[in-house]
Design brief:
By secondary structure, the protein is an alpha/beta fold. It has one domain (29-174): 3-Layer(aba) Sandwich (Glutaredoxin), CATH 3.40.30. Helix content is 36%, strand content 19%. The protein has helices spanning 8-23, 75-89, 103-113, 127-132, 159-174, and strands at 44-46, 54-56, 65-70, 94-99, 120-123, 139-143, 149-154. Strand 6 and strand 7 (149-154) form a beta hairpin. It starts with 7 loop residues before the first helix and ends with a helix.
């Protein structure tokens, strides 16, 4: 057997270790989004609260909004929800995207925990989620008044995240202080 062949597994191990080590400084919540800088995808889906009423992306054009992807099966959404209630109380406009959920359970969930949303899009099949490139819930998109996605956050929006990632951009786009 060739002596050089003995070092192939060691070289492969060293190479793989280097690749993994270089990835340790990456924040897994900072997933790239092809939508940042692009229009929010067109959709026509039922409202969570009134299934006969349909909503589209036109229903929030003209306003700077957070579009928050949530679901009753999402444990992290329970952690995030009080912050969304607080932001809503301060006047931040939030649109809910109820993702791959059951309508009755979602309505009950909001009745129990408060409803910070201007309205909720009911995406039972997850089609809008797919168009947004959603990995799961929660995810939050900051959309400007022209309907352009300006920022995306995968994971919980808490006070620290709001203050470091969203607040300044929201205020700049909205021309106000929140």
């Amino acid at each position: 057997m060739n002596r050089l062949a003995l070092f192939v597994p060691l070289a492969l191990f060293a190479g793989l270790s280097l690749v993994l080590l270089l990835g340790l400084d990456k924040d897994p919540t900072e997933l790239p989004s092809a939508l940042v800088g692009e229009p929010f995808p067109a959709f026509n889906l039922p409202s969570l609260m009134a299934e006969q009423q349909f909503v589209t992306e036109q229903d929030f054009k003209g306003d700077v909004v957070l579009v928050n992807v949530w679901a009753t099966w999402c444990f992290a959404c329970r952690i995030e929800h009080p912050m969304l209630n607080e932001l809503s109380a301060k006047g931040v406009k939030i649109i809910g995207l109820n993702y791959k959920d059951q309508r009755a359970e979602a309505k009950e969930w909001l009745a129990e925990r408060g409803n910070p949303y201007q309205f909720n899009i009911f995406d039972a099949q997850g089609q809008l989620g797919i168009d947004l490139g959603v990995y799961g819930a929660p995810e939050t998109f900051l959309v400007d008044a022209s309907g352009i996605v300006r920022h995306r956050r995968v994971g919980v929006v808490d006070e620290r995240v709001w203050n470091t990632e969203f607040r300044a951009l929201y205020e700049q786009l909205n021309g106000s202080d929140q």
